[in-house]
Amino acid sequence: MNNYRMSEEEKRYLEQYDISKYKRPSLATDMAIFSVMEAAKAENFRKLPKKSLRILLVCRGAYPYKGCWALPGGFCRPDEDVAETARRELSEETGVQNAYLSLFGSFGETDRDPRGWVISDAFLALIDAEKYKLSAGTDARETAWFTLEVTSTVVKKDVTEKSALIETEYNLCFRQEETGTLLSAKVTENKTFCDYHENVTYEIRECNGLAFDHAKIILCAWQRLRETLENDPRIAFDLMPELFTLNQLQNAMELISGKELLTANFRRKIADYVVETEYVTEGMGHRPAKLFMRNLNAFYR
Is there a contact between 28 and 76 (Cβ–Cβ < 8 Å)? Predict the structure, then answer.
C-alpha cells in the first residue's frame, strides 16, 4: 500500500480537479493463448503423432464483427487491474487458473474498435491444452483451436549510414482441423532505424475472417513467443504436461522457432532444466521412451 501522505494544499487541488475534461478510453485485454497439440487423427499409430502450434480463437456471437473470429478477452472491470482481467478471462475461456501469462503489447489506435476508443493490453499465454475443456464466453458462440502458420518475405530493405528501412510482409494462415475452417491475413511490418534506434509499425493489408486488429496482435504475440524462446528455453515447458519425453519438448521448440534442432545441441541446451523419472511411455504403438519432468531448482531461481 502506498504510504504517501498528501498535503492540505494537494487535497484542495484534487477536490477542484475535473478529470472529465479529458476524453478517456475504455480498457480491455486480449489474450494470445498458444498450445502444441496433436493432429485430429494419427497417420500411423506406430509413429509419433504429428503436432502443430495452435492458437485459441472465439467466434463472436455479437456485434461488432459478429460471426468473425477473435482473440479471447474482455473489458476490465472497475475493481480489476489488467493482469487480473487477463487471468479471469483465461480461466473463463479454458478453465486454467495458473499459466504462463505475460504482457507483450498495448494497442490503442483510435479506429481499432468501431464502438469507440478502446485500448487493449495484450497478453501471451501458454498452456497444455490437452488437460482443459474449452467454454465459450458470453459474447462468443464457439471457441476453437486453430493451427497457425506464418510465412514472411522481406520486400524492401534500404540501409544508409545512419538510417534504415526494412519492410517485411507476413502471411498468416489459420486452420481449424476438425471443421476445415480457414482464416487468413496479410500484415506488413515496417522497421525504421534512425541513429540506430528502432521503431516498428504494422499495417493489416488483408484480413479474412478475423475481427478488429487481431491479425496484428497475433503476429506480435507470435514474434514475442519466438524471441522469448531464443533467450530462455524455459518458456517451452509451459506447453508440456507434467511428464514428457525429450522428443515432445524438442518438437515444441522446433514448432515455435521454425527451425529443426540438432538433437545433441538441443539436449545440451535443456540438460539443466529436466530431471529423468522412472516412468516411460506406454501403449503408444512405438518403442517406449523415458519420461522427464521439470528440474524445479532451475525454474525457481
Answer: yes
86-124 confidence digits (pLDDT tens): 999 888 877 788 889 999 999 999 999 999 999 999 999
DSSP structural state of residue 146: E
Backbone angles phi, psi at 38, to 5 degrees: -75, 155
Segment 54-73 mean pLDDT: 93
Among residues 67, 70, 81, the alpha carbon closest in space to that of 28 is found at 81
Residues in the chain: 301
What count of other Cβ atoms lies within 10 Å of the Cβ of residue 254? 16
154-155-159-163 Cα dihedral, nearest 10 degrees: -90
Catalytic residues: 142
Query: Is the CB of residue 185 less than 8 Å from the CB of residue 210?
Result: yes
CB-based contact 220:124 (threshold 8 Å): no
Model confidence, pTM: 0.91
How far is it, in rounded angstroms, from Cα 64 to Cα 114? 7
Return d(Cα 152, Cα 172) in angstroms, integer.
Answer: 9
Which cell is 264 given? 545433441
The pairing of beta strand 26-38 with beta strand 118-126? parallel
R_g of the chain, CA atoms, integer Å? 22
Taking residues 228-238, report their average pLDDT. Answer: 94
